[in-house]
Amino acid sequence: VQLQASGGGLVQPGGSLRLSCTASGGTAGRHDLGWFRQAPGKDREFVAAISSEGTRQTYADSLKGRFTIFRDNAKNTVYLQMTSLKYEDTAVYYCAATALFLPTMAYQYSYWGPGTLVTVSS
Q1: Angle at alpha carbon of residue 33, lines to 31 and 39, rounded to 5°
Q2: Mean of the per-residue pLDDT values of the chain
Q3: From CA 15, how far away is CA 22, in angstroms rounded?
C-alpha cells in the first residue's frame, strides 16, 4: 500500500484545515487507516483512525470534538478535518495503513506516507 498525504499549510489559530491521504495498491481498501502527527522535538502521536468500511472511528481523547476522520473508498482517500486549530496542533501529519482493527500505536501500522506539514500561526 502506498500513501500520499496532502492539504497541509499555514493556518491561523481558530481556523480549519482538511488533510487528504490517497491510498494506492491492490489491498488499500481493506486496510484501516490512521493519522498521526509529530511536532518538533516530540514523539509521533496518534490522532485518529477509521475502519476499512468507514463505519468505525477512534480518536485521541485530547482531539475529540475538533478533529474528524472520514474516508471515501470510491476514491481510496481518507480525510482529516481539523477545526478550532491551536498553536500546539503544529506538526507533520502522517497517514498510515494497517491490517489491524483501529490500532492507536504507531508500530501497529505497516504502511506510512511521507507526511504533510501543518503550521498554526498568526
Answers
A1: 150
A2: 95
A3: 24
Is 28 in contact with 97 (CB distance < 8 Å)?
Answer: yes
What's the angle, vertex CA 66, arms to CA 11 and CA 16, rounded to 5?
A: 25
Give the pLDDT confidence of 64-84 residue by residue, as tens digits: 999 999 999 999 999 999 999
- β-strands 77-82, 91-98: how paired? unpaired
CB 35 within 8 A of CB 47: yes
| Alpha-carbon 8 to chain mean position | 11
d(CA 108, CA 111): 9
Do the Cβ atoms of 2 and 24 come closer than 8 Å? yes
Q: What value does the CA radius of gyration of the chain take, rounded to a whole number of Å? A: 13
How far apart are alpha carbons 30 and 46 in whole angstroms?
20
Residue 28's pLDDT is: 73
Structure-block grid coordinates of residue 64? 475529540
Q: What's the confidence (pLDDT) of residue 45?
A: 97
